[in-house]
């Protein structure tokens, strides 16, 4: 007991808490670096491995961001020794695994303070691909994917340490050159499929959503390298899949540089081979999707003119696959090839049709398209859909979408392959389809496709594409196709369609577009052909009148009525004007009135077309009377409206005029601001000068030509301001000639060309005559304004004289009233007035002529006046007495009462 009591219990001087236990106890990395690099300890492999394992144990949740320099020194030393000593492989893989975790920071500022070190460290990870060991390379690829894609798993691993954010890791990877290094390292792994797939997987992750990584990959020709190697032997097929996905990402985020790298024979052949194999042998849904992705890449590549699509034979192969289901072929590639109603095959068919349209931009491919009977294949869909699904045929919804897509492609292809179009009887097919669109047969259009908007439950989508295709054909200026259409009665058919629109009262954007297309087709067919204008006839003129008198308020509705109005005026110009019979019908129905009404109410950008139409119509002498007869809003006349348009045009051009509209600059009386500021430069003989270009760029030439038809005198409804502007309009052609000669003189001076004496004298005479003419017009304008001023002054005097006369009559009325009051209130004055009245009566009686005073008058005067009356008025049976108003006398009576 004694010994037991004497035995002392040890006292624990230091107790470790849980929090302190979680603190990271850093390993002296500098000691490990010295251990690995010291030549005296270079052969102590077991100690090396032990030290590396201690590092992996202590830093299992990530390296400190400030220790990355030492960590990558250790990794680089191990990388240099792996080839001779495989004992470093396992520790190195563990270290790389930790490098794939988010780096740990002690302070908030560590991320920005050590950003450059992190960027260089990530770049070093890419350089470690030089290690000739598959395990290390695989671990390195996994680490890069983890660092770039995985967010930190825990935020509180150690006390006072936080992992860097995921966004920070992404930013550091993008700032490094690891993407370029990985692309360049692909050339090291031709015979190592596993590592090649690993690296491609990393590149796929890097390029998925980062344009920065895509740009860096493209700097190392990633698209070219990957495309050339994507057909390497791979039993799993994953190499082709991951390669296509990377190229897709590069196309999406890398811009035009991708197609530049792919636009070479090696890449095109690789795409061609991959697509052919998947087209022939691809059966699964995965393979069909991959095949479609390759076709999308090919479509984007075809838009690069330098891509050798034709030279490589890829274009011929595409045409073969695009037409095999409609055009019979004995090519062995197509022996067992069939398309189903699956979504992937349907998308393939649409993309092939779209690719045919893109190929047509290359003129070298046109012969291939013609030999492949592309138009015949597309016209297979230009027919009515009876809704009956045949075996191995498309569903009604799919057929409708393919039909609209094929007709959209035919818009361009038919123009380029017009001979094939005529061989396929394209006009007949289109007119039959148009007739079906107008028929009453029930049709439940699905309207699902891009080209089928507005066509759900009706045939409007088919009609729209049909009319667009017809418009493309007639706009090609191919007389054979146009004549064939007219011979088949297209004019009457289209006019019936327009009449149908009036009867149904349709007013939406699609219906307006259809009407515009029809009017454009009619314009192209009837232009410069009198016989077709005669066929257009009264029915067509009636329809044009209906369009011309439409409500101008609809022009700003946003539905396209302004396009419809322009198409109507264009059709009037091309279909009715130029043929006497249709012109007379147009005049009889008030066509000129409607055109001028439209000119008054329409926006400024439509004036040019309407004025041109009116000017062409003025070739008919009957038109002049209609123009003079027209009256618009506020009862203005056509000449007044034209002069108003002239003033607005000069104001928009910046022509110098004073507040009264008179000429300011005698040397440039009609030049606009741009023309005055333009510097004279030497030009070729065929180049147009600014004075000549000005004629076609504004309305003044057309307005002058109209006045030349109407005359410059005896115009109704003009004000003095109008006559001031009319003086300039009348001399427009002379002023324009003066401008041209002035430009000639200026160009001669700029080019240092000295004219001969007669030529110089002629130039001076012409310039002097132009100035004198401008002065004369300015004087005429001044005289007109002065005459107006004098006329206004004269009218003012007449007005004041009338006012004065009115005041004089008022004074006479007042004096008569005062005399009346005085006669009624002063008896003596009344007697005097009575005597004066008697004298006036006596003096008014007939008297004997001079020299016959002795001869008695044969006329006897009887006195009809009543005697002793104290009035100066003539009395009758009834006497009206003017007295004080009753309301005053009544009030007076009440006061007296």
Automatic annotation (TrEMBL):
It holds the Pfam family CFA69_ARM_rpt. It comes from Ciona intestinalis (Transparent sea squirt). InterPro entries: ARM-like, ARM-type_fold, CFA69, CFA69_ARM_dom. Residues 27-744 form the Cilia- and flagella-associated protein 69 ARM repeats domain. The lineage of its organism: Eukaryota, Metazoa, Chordata, Tunicata, Ascidiacea. Residues 833-857 are annotated as: Disordered. GO terms for biological process: positive regulation of flagellated sperm motility. GO terms for cellular component: non-motile cilium; sperm midpiece. This is Cilia- and flagella-associated protein 69 ARM repeats domain-containing protein. Residues 834-857 have a biased composition (Polar residues).
């Amino acid at each position: 007991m004694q010994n037991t009591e004497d035995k002392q219990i040890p006292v624990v001087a230091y107790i470790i808490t849980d929090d302190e236990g979680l603190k990271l106890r850093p390993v002296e990395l500098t000691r490990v670096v010295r251990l690995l690099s010291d030549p005296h300890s270079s052969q102590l492999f077991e100690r090396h491995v032990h030290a590396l394992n201690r590092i992996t144990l202590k830093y299992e949740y990530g390296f400190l961001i400030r220790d990355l320099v030492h960590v990558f020194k250790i990794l680089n030393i191990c990388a240099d020794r792996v080839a001779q000593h495989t004992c470093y492989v396992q520790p190195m893989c563990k270290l790389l695994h930790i490098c794939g975790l988010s780096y740990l920071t002690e302070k908030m500022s560590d991320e920005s303070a050590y950003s450059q070190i992190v960027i260089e460290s990530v770049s070093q990870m890419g350089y470690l691909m030089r290690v000739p060991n598959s395990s290390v390379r695989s671990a390195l690829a996994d680490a890069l994917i983890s660092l770039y894609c995985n967010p930190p798993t825990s935020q509180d691993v150690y006390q006072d340490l936080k992992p860097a954010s995921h966004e920070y890791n992404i930013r550091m990877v993008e700032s490094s050159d690891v993407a370029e290094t990985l692309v360049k390292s692909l050339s090291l792994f031709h015979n190592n499929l596993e590592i090649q797939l690993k690296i491609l997987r990393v590149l796929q992750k890097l390029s998925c959503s980062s344009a920065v990584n895509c740009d860096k990959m493209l700097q190392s020709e990633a698209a070219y390298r990957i495309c050339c190697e994507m057909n390497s032997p791979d039993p799993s097929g994953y190499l082709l899949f991951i390669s296509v996905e990377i190229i897709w990402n590069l196309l999406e985020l890398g811009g035009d540089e991708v197609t530049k790298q792919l636009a070479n024979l090696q890449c095109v052949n690789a795409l061609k081979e991959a697509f052919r194999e998947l087209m022939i042998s691809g059966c699964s849904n995965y393979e069909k999707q991959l095949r479609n992705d390759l076709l999308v890449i090919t479509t984007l590549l075809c838009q690069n003119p330098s891509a050798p699509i034709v030279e490589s034979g890829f274009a011929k192969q595409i045409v073969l696959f695009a037409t095999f289901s409609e055009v019979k072929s004995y090519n062995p590639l197509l022996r067992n090839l069939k398309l189903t109603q699956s979504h992937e095959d349907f998308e393939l068919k649409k993309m092939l049709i779209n690719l045919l349209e893109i190929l047509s931009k290359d003129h070298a491919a046109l012969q291939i398209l013609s030999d492949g009977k592309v138009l015949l294949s597309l016209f297979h869909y230009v027919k009515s859909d009876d809704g009956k699904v045949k075996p191995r045929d498309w569903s009604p919804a799919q057929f409708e979408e393919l039909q609209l897509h094929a007709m959209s492609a035919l818009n361009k292809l038919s123009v380029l392959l017009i001979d094939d179009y005529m061989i396929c009887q394209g006009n007949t097919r289109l007119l039959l389809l148009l007739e079906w669109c107008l028929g009453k047969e029930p049709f439940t259009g699905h309207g699902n496709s891009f080209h089928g908007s507005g066509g759900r439950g009706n045939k409007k989508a088919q009609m729209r594409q049909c009319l667009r295709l017809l418009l493309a054909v007639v706009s090609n200026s191919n007389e054979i196709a146009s004549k064939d259409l007219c011979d088949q009665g297209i004019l009457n058919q289209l006019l019936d369609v327009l009449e149908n629109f009036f009867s149904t009262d349709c007013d939406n954007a699609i219906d307006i577009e259809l009407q515009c297309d029809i009017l454009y087709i009619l314009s192209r067919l009837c232009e410069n052909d009198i016989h077709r204008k005669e066929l257009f006839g009264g029915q067509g003129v009636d329809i044009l009148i209906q369009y011309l008198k439409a409500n101008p308020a609809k022009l700003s509705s946003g539905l396209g009525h302004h396009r419809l109005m322009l198409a109507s005026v264009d059709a009037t110009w091309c279909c009715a004007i130029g043929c006497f019979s249709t012109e007379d019908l147009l005049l009889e129905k008030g066509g000129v009135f409607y055109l001028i009404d439209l000119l008054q109410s329409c926006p400024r950008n439509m004036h040019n077309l309407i004025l041109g139409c009116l000017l062409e119509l003025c070739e008919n002498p009957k038109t002049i009377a209609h123009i003079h007869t027209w009256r618009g809003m506020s009862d203005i006349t056509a000449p007044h409206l034209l002069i108003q348009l002239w003033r607005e045009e000069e104001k928009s051009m910046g022509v110098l005029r004073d507040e009264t509209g008179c000429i300011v600059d005698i040397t440039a009386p009609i030049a606009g601001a741009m023309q005055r500021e333009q510097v004279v430069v030497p030009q070729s003989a065929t180049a147009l000068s600014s004075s000549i270009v000005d004629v076609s760029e504004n309305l003044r030439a057309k307005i002058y030509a109209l006045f030349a038809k109407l005359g410059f005198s005896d115009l109704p409804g003009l004000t003095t301001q109008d006559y001031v502007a009319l003086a300039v309009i009348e001399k427009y052609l002379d002023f324009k000639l003066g401008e041209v000669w002035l430009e000639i003189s200026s160009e001669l001076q700029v080019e240092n060309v000295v004219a001969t004496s007669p030529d110089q004298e002629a130039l001076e005479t012409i310039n002097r005559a132009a100035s004198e003419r401008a002065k004369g017009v300015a004087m005429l304008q001044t005289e007109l304004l002065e005459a107006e001023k004098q006329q206004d002054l004269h009218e003012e005097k007449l007005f004041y004289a009338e006012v004065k006369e009115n005041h004089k009559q008022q004074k006479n009325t007042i004096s008569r009233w005062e005399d009346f009051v005085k006669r009624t209130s002063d008896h003596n004055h009344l007697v005097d007035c009575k005597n004066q009245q008697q004298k006036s009566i006596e003096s008014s009686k007939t008297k004997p002529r001079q020299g016959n005073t002795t001869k008695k008058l044969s006329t006897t005067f009887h006195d009809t006046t009543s005697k002793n009356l104290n009035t100066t008025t003539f009395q009758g049976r009834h006497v009206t007495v003017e007295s004080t108003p009753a309301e005053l006398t009544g009030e007076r009576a009440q006061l007296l009462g």
